[in-house]
Write a structure and sequence with these properties.
Layout lengths: L1 E7 L4 H13 L8 E7 L5 H5 L4 E3 L7 H16 L4 E3 L2 H4 L5 H10 L7 E4 L2 H8 L6 E4 L9 E4 L2 H12 L3 H10 L8 E5 L6 E8 L3 E8 L13 E2 L6 H14 L3 E9 L2 E8 L4 H5 L3 E5 L5 E5 L4 H16 L7
Parallel strand pairs: 1-2, 1-3, 3-4
Antiparallel strand pairs: 5-8, 6-7, 6-8, 9-10, 9-12, 10-11, 10-14, 12-13, 14-15
InterPro entries: ATP-grasp (IPR011761)
GO molecular function: ATP binding; metal ion binding
Protein name: ATP-grasp domain-containing protein
Length: 328
């Protein structure tokens, strides 16, 4: 028998409840008999509670930098010290709430993305900004839904933002405390601006073969699409974008990943990635894509909760582990 722990107490119970429903509805995908229990890993003693389970399944959520850092520590511990199968895994989550960390992946692996700079040095930032082409898109390393994103049209404004983020003078630290100014990131992050994109494309890839896609139109008189709520499920989705995201899931061992995409000279360019997303936006898609064994994409009509495919992906991973799963 396979024993699965469904973690709760992390995000809204709605995500967890839908995952629980999926564990019951998708049982047929497990080759062995499966049993699952709800476990709260926010409480002391969570390690002992998880020891008897073969796999850990937990729902994602937008939790902020500090809370997510604690959760990522637990995921790393479960995966690398307890040697448990956990979905989503550490590979999917370690860069959550950090666009800077994502930029390391993009740059090192030569993933098509806007030219990006992340620097912790004020002098380095000033030097680079002298030679930039404007406008630039400045972003906070954390945050979502376009919060902390702005279009900067000249070097003077760009250098001011760099100074605001990186200057460490005592009087400036005191002023920030007195005036209750936003906590600074201690890093300055910007990307090239890619024009002629009236909308962006959100591809959500689950496992190695499933993907959902929809477009998000920009806000009125704005260049930002994330968080606009102007979702388009009708506009056709280019297959090369879907295949790019599925290939990245495979190469980087992502269990689930949402990709924000714009187009440069007709080619998909990934702006950001995030393992967590609003499940209702996925469910509202009229169907989803599935990659066949021969590499071709098929489109399956009908609404599907992402939790259903998460459970199917978990079953596939457990089935492939074979003798590692013991009969109890």
């Amino acid at each position: 028998m396979i024993k699965i722990a469904l973690c709760e107490g992390i995000v809204s119970p709605v995500w967890t409840d839908r995952m629980a429903t999926a564990l019951d509805s998708e049982k047929a995908y497990f080759k062995q008999e499966m049993r699952w229990d709800r476990i709260n890993i926010n409480c002391d003693g969570w390690i002992e509670k998880l020891e008897k389970y073969d796999a850990i399944l937990w729902p994602p959520g937008c939790m902020g930098v500090k809370p997510s850092s604690h959760l990522k520590e637990k995921i790393f511990f479960i995966q690398n010290h307890m040697k448990k199968l956990i979905v989503p895994n550490y590979e999917s989550t370690w860069h959550f709430e950090s666009k800077v960390a994502q930029s390391y992946i993009f740059n090192f692996h030569k993933i098509p993305s806007p030219r990006t700079v992340a620097t912790f040095s004020l002098n380095n930032a000033k030097s680079l900004l002298n030679n930039e082409e404007y406008p630039l898109v400045f972003k906070k390393s954390s945050d979502a839904a376009s919060r902390g994103v702005r279009l900067v049209k000249n070097s003077m404004k760009a250098k001011y933002l760099a100074w605001k983020s990186l200057y460490t003078g005592l009087w400036w630290k005191a002023a920030r405390r007195i005036l209750h100014l936003d906590h600074k990131d201690n890093v300055v992050y910007w990307q090239e601006f890619i024009p002629k994109n009236e909308c962006d494309l959100r591809i959500t890839a689950i496992g190695r073969k499933w993907a959902f896609g929809f477009w998000r139109w920009n806000r009125p008189n704005d260049f930002r699409a994330s968080g606009s709520g102007l979702i388009d499920y009708v506009k056709p989705i280019p297959e090369n974008a879907i295949n790019l995201c599925l290939d990245l899931n495979i190469k980087h061992n992502f269990d689930s990943m949402a990709y924000d995409i714009v187009f440069k000279e007709g080619n998909p360019v990934i702006v950001e990635i995030c393992y967590t997303y609003v499940d209702k936006a996925i469910y509202n898609s009229p169907g989803h894509y599935e990659r066949c064994d021969n590499g071709n994409l098929t489109y399956k009509m009908g609404k599907t909760w992402p939790q259903q495919l998460w459970v199917q992906w978990l079953a596939e991973r457990l089935n492939n582990m074979g003798p590692l799963i013991k009969n109890i």
